[in-house]
Write a structure and sequence with these properties.
With about 60 residues, the protein is of the alpha+beta class. The protein is built from one helix and three strands. The chain is flat and about 30 Å long.
Amino acid sequence: MGCRSCRAESLPDDLEGPHLNLNDDTVEGVWHRKLPAFSVQYHPEASAGPHDSNYLFGQFRAMLP
């Protein structure tokens, strides 16, 4: 398995990268500007607090029909 990383400025126009790695500024999460889609490249449930990623699950639920 290879290492995959990118910088926010290299993303296509229809993606934005609001989740950045604090150590090297690589993108760890993207949101599609037009489609109901997003992704994170980390384990939000493994964060320090038990509710730190609730907004991601809320966003996902809001996308469901």
